[in-house]
Each structure stands twice: as C-alpha cells, then as structure tokens.
Write a structure and sequence with these properties.
The protein has one domain: Glutaredoxin. The protein has three helices and four strands, in the order αβαβββα. The N terminus is likely disordered. One of its GO terms (biological process) is rhythmic process.
Length: 100
C-alpha cells in the first residue's frame, strides 16, 4: 500500500527581493534541502518582489526572504536565509531523508 503523503507534490514559494546575499543563500539552501529530502516531489516558485510587489499581499509577506509551503496544507511560513536545516525541516514538517 502506498502512503499518500509520501507521494504528494510539495508546493513551495520563496519570496525574495532581488539578488541580495540573504535571498541567494535562502534559495541555495532551499534547493539543497529539497533535493535531499523531497527529490522529485516538489515544485518551487521563486517570486521576486522587486518585479512583482503585488504578489506579497496574497501570502501576507511582511519580511524577506520568506518561504511559504502551500501544499500540503496547512500553509507554513519560514522567514530568513534558511541556513538552519533542522529548523527549516521542522518548520515545513519534512521528515529528514534517512542517511545511509
């Protein structure tokens, strides 16, 4: 029997403001975590609020960079450069991939 949660595609949005050091670091960290723990099961949208400021209102973005987990519900948000892997995984409710 297949666990439905394991097969679900995670929908993540990372809100940034240009190519600031924090934004670049957050994106690099997030891509690494996704490839390690959600490989093939995630969709990542990066939204630059310098070019699309109106998109901040929909997810109530107050600080950047901010990561929003849209799916699976409930929606979760993490603010910062995502450098603390354990905090990010707990915040997103991702079970760490087993390390061999």
């Amino acid at each position: 029997m297949v666990d439905i949660m394991e097969e679900e595609t995670w929908e993540l949005r990372l809100y940034v403001a240009g190519q600031t050091p924090k934004s670049v670091t957050a994106l690099a960290n997030l891509r690494r975590y996704c490839e390690e723990h959600l490989k093939g099961r995630y969709k990542l949208d990066v939204i630059d609020l310098l070019t699309h400021p109106q998109l901040a209102e929909g997810d109530q973005i107050l600080a950047i960079p901010t990561l929003v987990r849209k799916v699976p519900e409930p929606i979760r948000k993490i603010i910062g450069d995502l450098s603390n892997e354990e905090r990010v995984l707990v915040g997103l409710d991702v079970r760490p991939a087993s390390r061999n």
